[in-house]
Design brief:
The structure is a single chain. The chain is of the alpha/beta class and about 250 residues long. The chain has 2 domains: about 180 residues, Vaccinia Virus protein VP39 (Rossmann fold, 3-Layer(aba) Sandwich); about 55 residues, S-adenosyl-L-methionine-dependent methyltransferases (N-terminal domain of TfIIb, Single Sheet). The chain is about 30% helix and about 30% strand. The chain has a 7-stranded mixed sheet, with helices on both faces. The protein has a 4-stranded antiparallel sheet with strand order 6-7-8-9. β8 and β9 form a beta hairpin. The chain is globular, with a radius of gyration of 18 Å.
Length: about 250
């Protein structure tokens, strides 16, 4: 079970090395490569809205969807100055329900891995396909690869910020990676401890490509990094694109 009741307040500080601007630049190049000029973009599993904000600032109309109400509260705060304001919806991927179609669906930062039930992920792909614009709709997402999960298995990491100290450990078993977060918050001279456990599933490229085809997608492509290099094996992250050609 993935909960962000405590982590949501510190998520942006703990992920300040992600390089969201590079991701936004990559998406812009990708749209040109796919010969599309999207107007309405779905940011699926938008989290605290950092990417939502960047895309809105670049002129896209954005819908942000996330299963965590706590993360969406942060997203609404982060996009207060955006005009027009993004629309945020508290929904799970597999029950995605929009008011109409979108030109592009982006699902960033291995959010697909966080759908740990393959049947629910299949449903999520089908819902994305349903709400993409016919003939031109583009689905873009990335995953943590099996190679990355093998690399981090058993490792511990520490992040310290003002008045907060976070230790997290990764353990992989039966194609599931459990992250245990111990978050220590200081108030005055006292420290309080909160614990969250998040899970990701290890999916192979072949497995996900098959699920995309079953959902109705075509023209499925994979890239080994943000420079459109082919997947060679051993990458920590792989990017997928798929088209709706109904």
């Amino acid at each position: 079970m993935n909960s962000y009741q405590t982590l949501s307040a510190y998520y942006d500080r703990f992920t300040d090395d992600v390089g969201y601007e590079r991701w936004a630049d990559f998406f812009g190049r990708l749209f040109q490569r796919e010969n599309i000029e999207p107007k309405l973009v779905l940011d699926l599993a938008c989290g605290t809205g950092t990417m939502t904000q960047l895309l809105a600032q670049r002129g896209y109309e954005i819908i942000g969807v996330d299963a965590s109400a706590d993360m969406l509260m942060q997203a609404m705060q982060n996009t207060m100055d955006c005009e027009p304001r993004p629309l945020f919806l508290n929904q799970r991927m597999e029950t995605l329900d929009l008011y109409g179609t979108v030109d592009v669906c982006l699902c960033c930062l291995d959010s697909v891995n966080y759908v740990t039930d393959p049947l629910e992920l299949q449903q999520a792909f089908e819902r994305v396909h349903l709400f993409l614009e016919p003939k031109t709709g583009l689905f873009v997402f990335d995953i943590n690869t099996p190679e990355k999960f093998a690399r981090i298995d058993g490792n511990s990491y520490v992040r310290e910020e003002e008045n907060v100290f976070c230790v997290w450990q990764a353990a992989v078993e039966d194609a599931l990676c459990a992250y245990q977060f111990d978050i220590f918050e200081r108030s005055g001279e006292a420290w309080t401890r909160a614990q969250e456990i998040h899970e990701e599933r290890v999916y192979s490229i072949e497995q996900l490509a098959g699920m995309l085809r079953q959902a109705g997608f075509s023209e499925i492509k994979t890239y080994g990094d943000q420079s459109f290099s082919p997947v060679r094996g051993g990458e920590d992250r792989v990017y997928f694109t798929a088209r709706k050609r109904d």
